[in-house]
């Protein structure tokens, strides 16, 4: 028995009318059918087609394919002084920073630049302990699928995730 809807094009693949009917019936399309639909049926420019194709590829992308290497991370040491931290924030232009302990592998949490605003210009800033304004950091395996990570980050309070890379 053939599970495919009848073709209206005579080419063996479902025609546009059959595809639209199928889309509204709730029956899922295969990845190839969606890609074919994007490439042939929808009036999109090259950039839009590329973007939609990229969305399809996210489900097969692993975290290791998009992570920032440890050597390129801008980090704040838990022992850094307030003025040093402000200088690093201004120089880097970032808004979120991993805070490390004794080495770069010991991520203690995330520092958001906006969390320091209430201390800016205050005498209390000189005695500020970064640990008091840290937020929790998610730690994930390098093999995790990117679409699953994005879903989890959206559903949680986490703004950044740190990838655990094994020694092997």
Descriptive keywords:
single chain, 3-stranded mixed beta sheet, two-stranded parallel ribbon
Give an overview of the whole structure:
- The strands form two sheets. The protein has a three-stranded mixed beta sheet with strand order 1-2-3, with no helix packed on it. A two-stranded parallel ribbon has the order 4-5.
- Mean pLDDT is 75; it is low at 1-12.
- The radius of gyration is 24 Å and the shape is elongated.
- By secondary structure, the chain is an alpha/beta fold.
- The protein has five helices and five strands; from the N terminus they run αααβαβββαβ.
- It has helices spanning 16-25, 31-41, 46-58, 82-92, 146-155, and strands spanning 76-77, 96-100, 107-112, 138-141, 161-164.
- The longest helix has 13 residues, at 46-58.
Outline of the structure:
The chain is of the alpha/beta class.
The global form is elongated
- Provide the gyration radius in Å: 24 Å
**Beta-strand content bin:** 5-15%
Low-confidence stretches: 1-12
**Helicity level:** 25-40%
Structural class, from helix and strand content?
alpha/beta
Quaternary structure: single chain
Sheet with the most strands, sense and barrel status: 3 strands, mixed
Q: What's the SSE pattern? A: HHHEHEEEHE
Roughly how many Å apart are the termini? Answer: 48 Å
Number of strands: 5
Helix count from the secondary structure assignment: 5
Strand order of the largest sheet: 1-2-3
On the 0 to 100 scale, the average pLDDT is 75
